[in-house]
Amino acid sequence: LAKTTQPISMDSYEGQEVNITCSHNNIATNDYITWYQQFPSQGPRFIIQGYKTKVTNEVASLFIPADRKSSTLSLPRVSLSDTAVYYCLVGDGRNDYKLSFGAGTTVTVRA
Amino acid sequence: GAVVSQHPSWVICKSGTSVKIECRSLDFQATTMFWYRQFPKQSLMLMATSNEGSKATYEQGVEKDKFLINHASLTLSTLTVTSAHPEDSSFYICSGMGGASGRGETQYFGPGTRLLVL
Questions:
Q1: pLDDT 10s digits, A50-107
Q2: Cα separation, A13 vs B98, whole angstroms
Q3: Interface test with chain A among B44, B59, B92, by most A beta carbons within 10 Å
Q4: Cα(A46)–Cα(B58) distance, rounded to whole angstroms?
Q5: Which of A99, A71, A103 lies closest to A87, judged by CA?
Q6: Closest CA relative to residue B93, chosen from B75, B79, B82
Q7: Is A97 helix (H, G, I), strand (E, B) or coil?
Q8: Which of A96, B18, B61, B118 is 20–30 Å from B104 (CA)?
C-alpha cells in the first residue's frame, strides 16, 4: 500500500485558510488521492478525491503537482467546527483499493 | 449520496458473548465493504475486506474465526465478534465502496459502533 506522510498537527484561527500537505512518494500510476475528515467517535467523512492537477468542491480544494508525489488539501476560511483529524490516503487499485490510515493531521481551530 | 449506516451505534456485552454489527449502504450498492477497528487516540486499522458473495479477506493478525464477516448482499455486511473479551472493546467502523466510477474507488464510512465488553 502506498505510504503517506503528513504533519501530526496544525493550529489555525477562525477565518484563516488551512493547507495540509501530504507526501506519497511511491504513488502508483492508477492510484487516486483521497482526503477524509474524522471527528471523535465518528466514522471518517469523505472530503475530496483527485488524480492530478486541481480539484475543488464546496468544502475544499485539492492541489496535486504533475509528479503526484505530494498533494495539498486546502480548507478555506475554517471555523471552530473544522477542528478534526484529517487523513490523506492513496487508494491502491492493485490491492482492492484498501486504505492504510496513518496518524493523520490534527487540525485545531481557535477563536 | 453515498450514505452508510451501522447498527447498533453502541453495545455493551458480557465477556464470552457474541455481538453482531450491521453495516448497510443506503443509497448505493457496495460491491466491496471494509471493516476497521479504532482504539482510543489511534488511527483506523483495517481488519478485513469483503466482496459480496465471497469470503472475506483478513489482514494479518486478525483472527477470522473470532471476527466473522458476512457480505450477503450488495447493501449489507455484518461483523460478528464471537466470544468477546474486554480487549475486543473498541470502535468498529465499516465502509462501502461501489463500482468503478471512473474517478477512483471511494470508500464511504459508517458512523461507527462502540463496543464495550465487560
A1: 999 899 999 999 999 999 999 999 999 999 999 999 999 987 665 667 888 888 999 9
A2: 37
A3: B44
A4: 24
A5: A103
A6: B79
A7: coil
A8: B61
